[in-house]
Amino acid sequence: MQQHNVNTESDIDNILILYTLSTSEIISNNDMLHIQIYPGGYDDVSILFEGYKQKQFKKYSLGSASTSFSPFEVVENDVLTMYMASNSYISAGGIWQVDVLSEESPTTLKCICSTSIDLVEVNELLSAEELTLIDHEIKQVYTFLLKRFRLAKLVSCCQIDKGIWEQLRQMVPVHPDIKGDEHVWQMLWNCNPVPWTMCRLVVSSHPQTSDLPFTVEIAEQWVQTWES
Question: 67: helix, coil or strand?
Fold first, then answer.
């Protein structure tokens, strides 16, 4: 299968969205789109769906307490507009169209335009166990930062394990021993309102090391400025 918008080091602060496309033989022969948002610093995620053949328009919304949309049916030329908001400010968004290159090729989502989003097709979405692990590490980092700053607001989170992007590109299943494996994340946090201070952290879990199962390193810290 073809990949779209896979993360690279240059855009690792982007919000990561995973999706699968599968044929629904029960409802119809059309494709069912499953979308999952990798945990991050958003308050609301919205999808505006424009059906090409059905001439229908729908809106789907997801709060920060959830990560996955209910699957919905798509056909060729349908259009998805997706955006993330935090404190009523839209921080990321894009437009994608359902595309079928030929009868033999699989359905894909073709990116028309996007900013601060990586939409990646995968073989399987993250399991509940994986999501729980990520949420646990985010809470650990939040506690770590509040000991040093007045504020800690997550902006983005991305797993950067060795080979993780190769796994996504090849769409092979993630190793089943989730809790037993070592994992590394890069997280971007807003750590101070005035002046606006940003921190990029490298977070590592070491489940095999009982005396140091979790480490955090502030890899970069800077004051965000905007030119008038």
Answer: coil
